[in-house]
Amino acid sequence: MAPLAEGNAARIPYSAARYSSRAEQLSEYFAPQHTSTTALPDPEPFLRNLTRGVLEVFSGVRHVEQLARWLTEDAFRRLAIRANLATRARSARGVAAARPVHSIVSVRCTMPADGVVEAVVIVSAPARTRAVALRLEGMDSRWRCTSLALL
Hints:
The structure is a single chain. By secondary structure, the chain is an alpha+beta fold. It has one domain (37-150): Nuclear Transport Factor 2, Chain: A, CATH 3.10.450.50. It contains 4 helices and 4 strands. Strand 2 (116-124) and strand 3 form a beta hairpin. The longest helix is centred in the middle third of the chain and has 21 residues, at 73-93.
């Protein structure tokens, strides 16, 4: 096969350079889009509901998959691992899954950047008081949790 002359390269509709440029444009278009804080709802109800859901996952009465749409992939993976460990610990102790008895004492939020909320939710249970640290980011016109820690 004869090599293409430089003049013929312009007539090829999808050269490698054009294809890679188009692929980059498409991946940017379909990637999660940052959303400004002004275009998002108040984060406090979301923080309260997500915290309740996380505590229910750890207590074994909710499947972790039910929270997947509100978590990024990394946060979901870490929550699933931690929930699996909690299930194993309950099984080793012979304790059945039970709905957690808790009340949310306070929600403290800061906004370090546009479309970002960092919060601590204080949860009181009969045995102890815990803190849940969350980072929310505005993606695709809704809040998504990018980081989660149960302390």
